[in-house]
Write a structure and sequence with these properties.
The protein has about 140 residues and is mainly beta. The protein contains 2 helices and 8 strands; from the N terminus they run αββββββαββ.
C-alpha cells in the first residue's frame, strides 16, 4: 500500500516537472490610425504552417482595435520558440482581403516586425524565445 502511494506520488511529481505551463505572453499589436475592426492573430510554436495556416497555429484569437491597438493575453504556454502573424480585419469576416495578384489589401505584420521583400518572412526571422514567467511583445501592422 505504501509502495503504491509512493508510485502514484512519484508519477504526479514527474508530470509536474515535465510540463512547464507557467509562461504567460501578452501581445500588443499596433494598428496606427485605426480605431475599428478586429486584429486576427495566429500564434505558432515551430515553423510548421507559419505564417498563415490557422490549423497549424497553437492559438488563434481576435481582438477589437481600440485606440490604435489590439491586445492579446495567453496563459499556461510551454517554454519554446514562437512566432506570431496578424492582420487588420476591417470588415470582421476573418479573411484577409487581397487584390487580383494576391497582394494583401489589409494591414498585416509579424512578431519582431519581421518583413521580407516579395513574400512573407520566415519563421526564424519572426521567432522569439519564450521562457517561463510573464512576457510582453509588440509589433506594428503595416
Amino acid at each position: 500500500m505504501i509502495n503504491q502511494a509512493i508510485l502514484i506520488l512519484s508519477t504526479l511529481l514527474m508530470g509536474l516537472s515535465i510540463s512547464d505551463n507557467s509562461t504567460q505572453l501578452t501581445i500588443q499589436v499596433e494598428v496606427k490610425g485605426e480605431n475599428a475592426g478586429l486584429v486576427q492573430l495566429l500564434l505558432f510554436k515551430g515553423g510548421k504552417g507559419f505564417p498563415d495556416q490557422a490549423t497549424a497555429a497553437i492559438k488563434t484569437a481576435s481582438a477589437k482595435v481600440q485606440s490604435g491597438k489590439a491586445v492579446f493575453k495567453f496563459k499556461n504556454l510551454e517554454s519554446g520558440i514562437y512566432a506570431v502573424s496578424a492582420f487588420h480585419d476591417t470588415d470582421g469576416d476573418g479573411e484577409m482581403r487581397k487584390n487580383l495578384f494576391g497582394i494583401p489589401k489589409d494591414l498585416y505584420g509579424f512578431s519582431n516586425d519581421a518583413r521580407a521583400t516579395f513574400s512573407a518572412p520566415t519563421f526564424d526571422s519572426a521567432s522569439f524565445n519564450l521562457t517561463s514567467g510573464e512576457h510582453t511583445i509588440s509589433f506594428t501592422l503595416k
